[in-house]
Amino acid sequence: MRKLFRLLIVLFILYIFLEAVFNYFSKGYKSIYKLDGFSVTETRVKRTKNEMDNYYFEIKKDDTIFSIQTNKSISTSQNVLGSIKYFKNDEYECIFPLTKNDEAISDIICKVGSIYYYYNSLEGQDNDLDRFSEKLSKYRKDFNNSSKVIHNKDNVTVYDNLGDITIGLEHYKGMYLISNNDFINNDLFTHDIYTREISAFTSDYYIVADYKEIFDFHNFYVIDLKTHKMFKITSNNKISMYSYIEGVIDNLVYLFDPSNKVQYEIDIKNNSIKEIGNESLGINIYNDGKWSKINIYDAINNKVTFESIKTEFNNKTYDKVDHVGNKLSGYYYLYLKNKEKYDVYRVNVQNNDNIVYLFSTDTISDVLYKNDTVIFKDKNYLKYYSDLTGVKVLLQNNEVNFNKTLKFGFIR
């Protein structure tokens, strides 16, 4: 009997080990199960090329389908939801899914007519819905927008909403690096530079031309957003101050010098700059995920950049449509003018029918995405949106609104 007991223990440990190995190396799964009167389709995307690891849920009750994607790390291996809180009245139908560890995967999400809304944009509009949210307040602590000021320097007011985010923000003589613990002023120039076309943020770096020069330059200044260290990248060729950044693709920076008829590719990580286009080779352009070449004079006459604005989605016209991510892990962000603001909606790539309202802003230009995180300008504020926090104000600075050319970047 004792030997049999030991054998069972060994087999159980082996089973747990093999399951852990399988889950670690697995590229995901699809599971369908019932929970609290809902049908749940749970798709796990993992270790898939060009895709972000994520969980995607379609939670169905009668004819209503709620779709939720989260990049949150969930310890349970499969069928991760433990409960679904439900609310319905004449106007709203809402759910609040929790994992088996009682963790939220998003805010309360509600269907209103044909559009879905997160509760953070509905708060105060319906007493019954507010009471439903109040009962769930212990799960929604991260949705509080703090008004506590943690930095107030150089006319920049920073609020206690940054979390693990570090912001890089241009100013006229350089760039600020702003986090919960730091407010670092990197003065790079001796005089104010109001318009800076030769600068860009990549995922980890800020790069800018040496604006101490007047007509031509050789050096780029680079600031590492993680380590805060600065270094230089030097070009063997002189580059005109009339050059401009065409775009950033896969963390490579592309610059066009129309005066000298040269296109460069700058690899910050490898501290290199190389000529990739000229009068005889033509100019490389990137549009809708594809590379092509054009005549250099077309590039000069049209000031070609890599930014292409799409406006069509599902046979409807918007002011702007951005696609972030890929086929199994991403979103379409839809911008629609509403009086003086733009309403921002989102559609998951795995379900084009569910349109979710996120927030409103006054510009469609200054928006950055990372996973399910959005950082955007709204008048003289930098704001942050995430499904797990709602909209939060990160900082306030009048120059952000006054000078639309000032760029920003972030890491987390």
Describe this structure in words.
- The chain has 412 residues and is mainly β.
- Among the domains are: 26-143, no CATH class; 196-308.
- It contains four helices and 33 strands.
- The chain has helices at 2-25, 127-135, 296-302, 398-402; strands at 28-35, 38-45, 54-61, 64-70, 81-88, 93-99, 109-112, 115-118, 149-153, 156-159, 166-171, 174-178, 183-187, 199-201, 205-209, 216-224, 230-240, 244-249, 252-257, 262-267, 272-278, 283-287, 290-294, 310-313, 316-325, 330-338, 341-348, 351-361, 367-370, 373-378, 381-386, 390-396, 408-411.
- The strands form seven sheets. Strands 5-6-7-8-28-27-26-25-24 form a nine-stranded mixed β-sheet, with no helix packed on it. A six-stranded antiparallel β-sheet has the order 9-10-32-31-30-29. It has a four-stranded antiparallel β-sheet with strand order 1-2-3-4, with no helix packed on it.
- Mean pLDDT is 92; it is low at 15-25.
